[in-house]
Amino acid sequence: SWFDPEWMFGIKEGFDVVIGNPPYVGEKGHKEMFREIRQGPLSKFYQGKMDLFYFFFHLSLNIARHRAHISFITTNYYPTATGAKKLRQDFKERAIIKKLINFNELKIFEGLGEHNMITIIQKGNNENVYADTCLTERQGTAEPELLWKIFDGVDKKTKYYKVLQKELYDEEEYYIRLAGKGEESKAPLQKILEKMKRQGTPLGIICNVNQGIVTGADKVSQKHINKYGIKANVGDGIFVLSDKEVKKLNLTDEEEKILKPWFKNSDIFRWGTALSTTEKIIYADKRLRNLEHNKLKEHLQKFKRILDDSTVNSPYLHRPRDVNFDSEKIVAPQRSSRNTFGYNEIPWYASADVYFITQKDKSISLKYILALLNSKLYYFWLYHRGKRKGEMLELYQKPLSEIPIKKLAENDQKPYVDLVNKILYITQSEDYPEDPEKQAKVKEYERQIDQMVY
């Protein structure tokens, strides 16, 4: 983390050009590396969930002279990543974004993953300068000829934008919007998204939006066996038990009440969810008090070494306080290729890779909200104003909480609720996945909802 341009290169005024391909390293598993930097001159730029390469941008701005150009190739997550707020703020305050080339699903390094971006910035500040940004729809591995087409702005499968600096940054999180945030945009889509935002109230104000349950350990892994010498098989239940494992424990009726049905994010589909499961979670309270004199406590004691060493909040189970898992709720998988929101009113417990939307404002029906969230218009909101990993929507707490919901009177919500009820009735029938007629009926109801939402 030490760098002295004057001593190393005899440069006092700063560099004219800084170019780099910095390491893409998260803090998880590399705490020592981050600890050193946190104690040095770049410490003020540290924040949780950040990537090591953010420091390279900050350092570049420190060592560059006024009007110098800085060009990096990195991953493309930082424009909306939660841990990149300080980086985006530093760009807004000390840099002019000249070019952002988002390669998205196109691989530019053979054999390595996709999701890369070239960032070219100039040291300085002028909110009336345009940035050239682009987002390619290409996939596969890039050939040099294709790369030159993208760079030259002539590729037919790449979208190009010219965006004022002041139009790039969105809200207090300083999200960088490659197509602009829309306030002064003449592009129809941007104007529509801006109108949604103006007329709507953030979902996080209307509803509780929470991550699911985090356990100290769901099941035994090979790592547990190697590290702790646990006498168990890979896949044996710790907090999450199969029906077969529950049967072996020979629990009383009272003890069984502590077990709750445990679902996966793959159990969520548009409009509904799976209604039965073959797994249960031990739903312990804060100090395992509800497990006193209970076979389930004896079961967990076998894995005490694993659980005591867990990074999860003690003692072993972290559950959101605003979620009633037994009543009506909307659920979403943390990542999906389309807006996938399911609904149920049964006991339905799931892990941290599921997000739960529950009622806070009693005047707004959850079924009305479900209609909006599963509509085509809201797909475009999530794609352009939410968070993405390549083409996958990231349905995390922050982007979900920011979705604008138009408040309607109860009577005006009713047509949406009626259509959702019709869809739920069809999708909950057992033969729905194999019945083209029922699927066509749901598509027709979805089309009606889309028109109403528009």
Brief description of this entry?
By secondary structure, the protein is of the alpha+beta class.
Descriptive notes:
The protein is of the alpha+beta class. The protein is 33% helix and 23% strand. The protein contains 18 helices and 25 strands. The strands form 8 sheets. A 6-stranded mixed beta sheet has the order 1-2-5-3-6-8. The chain has a 4-stranded antiparallel beta sheet with strand order 12-22-18-20. The protein has a 4-stranded mixed beta sheet with strand order 14-16-15-21. A hairpin with a 2-residue loop joins strand 23 (387-389) and strand 24 (392-394). Helix 14 crosses helix 17 and helix 17 (410-427) runs antiparallel to helix 18. The longest helix has 18 residues, at 410-427. The N and C termini lie far apart (52 Å).
Q: Secondary structure elements and their pairing?
A:
Layout lengths: L4 H5 L5 E6 L10 H8 L14 H11 E12 L9 H10 E8 L3 E2 L8 E8 L6 E7 L3 E2 L2 H9 L5 E7 H4 E2 L4 E2 L11 H12 L1 E2 H4 E5 L2 E2 L6 H7 L11 E3 H7 L3 H4 L2 E5 L15 E4 L12 H7 L2 H5 L8 E2 L10 E5 L1 E2 L5 E3 L4 E2 L3 E6 L6 H8 L2 H10 L1 E3 L2 E3 L2 H5 L2 E2 L4 H18 L8 H18 L1
Parallel strand pairs: 1-2, 3-6, 4-7, 15-21
Antiparallel strand pairs: 2-5, 3-5, 6-8, 9-10, 11-25, 12-22, 13-17, 14-16, 15-16, 18-20, 18-22, 19-24, 23-24
Helix pairs in contact: 14-17, 17-18
